[in-house]
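Hi W., the iron/sulfur cluster complex you wanted:
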Amino acid sequence: MKLEDILQSDIWNVDEDPHIIVDYNKCKNCPDKPCVYLCPAGCYVLSDNGIVFSYEGCVECGTCRVICPMEAITWNYPKSGKGIFYRFT
Ligand code: SF4
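Structure:
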């Protein structure tokens, strides 16, 4: 089974308040933007204007928190009852 198939079987209860905050001013000076390539859920997309982040599909792996070289990410787990609910564990 492909990762995309597994992710599509999960359920999100999206909070209106993002659990991850990105400091885009710091992103502007990031040369490699590893979040775009390493986020397994594709939450970080590179556009003509820089990084575009969408927290709604986050799988709470913590990768972006660890790999961001600019310390541009404020990361918290979603509130209780919010975020992803895994079908396959
Ligand atoms: Fe992507 Fe994982 Fe960061 Fe969520 S925690 S935005 S899935 S890298």
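The helical segments are 3-8, 24-27, 34-38, 63-67.

W.
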